[in-house]
Design a protein that fits this description.
The chain is rod-shaped, with a radius of gyration of 40 Å. A hairpin with a 5-residue loop joins β9 (242-253) and β10. The strands form two sheets. The protein has a five-stranded antiparallel beta sheet with strand order 2-1-5-4-3. Strands 7-6-10-9-8 form a five-stranded antiparallel beta sheet, sandwiched between helices. The longest helix is centred in the middle third of the chain and has 42 residues, at 119-160. It has helices spanning 2-12, 33-39, 52-61, 70-82, 119-160, 180-184, 196-199, 201-206, 209-223, 270-279, and strands at 18-22, 28-31, 88-94, 97-105, 111-117, 162-167, 173-176, 228-236, 242-253, 259-268. It has ten helices and ten strands.
């Protein structure tokens, strides 16, 4: 029996974990040096036949389990270990080292307890947590900046009486900013999903020859995917008011280089056109 115990002890000493084994009477049967080193027991404390309660009482007296009556803490700790019917786990801190404690009940009523050094893992986890917190702060900051820019963008467009628009690859309007409906005198939804040809059909048909030529040139630019600036278009509101708008647009393409649509701006230049007319 002693020879078998010596062999087992020799094997355990080559394991990187701290390991100890208790029998059904809760007494220490074998352990390795790593176990003694981690738990920092003084010489003679760890020995064959030492009870689990004796070791936990030593731990409680030196404050390993926090404040409270040492005997009660030791008793509760022993019950915690031997009261389990399956593998359990917890973490302990010894100096600057972190250990994961695992204990497994044996069929005959004994217990195997192991302590694994997870200091590097905990440091890595702490670094990951810090990195995650930093990313969350950056995202929150960027979100706040985007929200501020959104309000700033809206204020600029409202102040300038301009609107922003976007067309898809079929040249149909898929986005029109807030001030569009005010300038056109009708709900934005009426124009969404429609092309300029659809929206301005009546205007083009009733326009002058020169006006129709400008529209044809504009449509040619759109078909050729060319950018355009200051394209002036006449509009008649549902109330019968004539207005003039200046449009700028630029084509954009997807990651494959395929045409995806146009994005641009519109400005109400009715007052300017009226002033120019009055000077003639």
């Amino acid at each position: 029996m002693a020879a078998e115990q010596d062999i087992l002890g020799s094997v355990l000493d080559h394991i990187g974990q701290g390991v100890s084994m208790f029998d059904a009477s809760q007494c220490l049967v074998t352990w390795n040096q790593k176990f003694e080193d981690i738990m920092e027991y003084p010489p003679g404390t760890v020995r064959v036949g030492a009870s689990m309660l004796e070791l936990t009482l030593f731990n409680a007296n030196r404050g390993d389990y926090g404040e409270g009556d040492p005997e009660r803490l030791a008793h509760d700790r022993t019950e915690f270990f031997f009261g389990s019917t399956s593998s359990e786990g917890e973490y302990i801190q010894k100096g600057d080292k972190s250990y994961r404690v695992m204990f497994q009940r044996l069929a005959e009523g004994g217990l195997i307890l192991s302590l694994t050094d997870i200091t590097d893992l905990m440091k890595t986890q702490a670094n990951l947590d810090e990195h995650r917190r930093h990313l969350e702060e950056v995202v929150a900051q960027r979100t706040d900046e985007l929200e501020q820019n959104r309000h700033r963008f809206r204020d600029f467009t409202e102040t300038a009486s301009d609107w922003f628009w976007e067309m898809d690859a079929d040249l149909r309007f898929i986005y029109l900013s807030d001030s569009f409906d005010e300038n056109f005198g009708r709900a934005t939804e009426v124009s969404l999903g429609r092309t300029k040809q659809d929206i301005y059909a009546a205007i083009i048909e009733s326009g002058t020859v020169e006006e129709q030529r400008e529209w044809h040139r504009h449509f040619a630019d759109l078909e050729a995917r060319r950018p355009f600036k200051n394209f002036v278009q006449r509009w008649i509101t549902p109330a019968g008011e004539t207005r003039f708008f200046a449009n700028n647009g630029k084509p954009f393409f997807d990651e494959n280089g395929d045409f995806a649509g146009y994005r641009g701006t519109g400005s109400n230049i009715t007052e300017r056109k009226q002033e120019e007319k009055s000077l003639i």
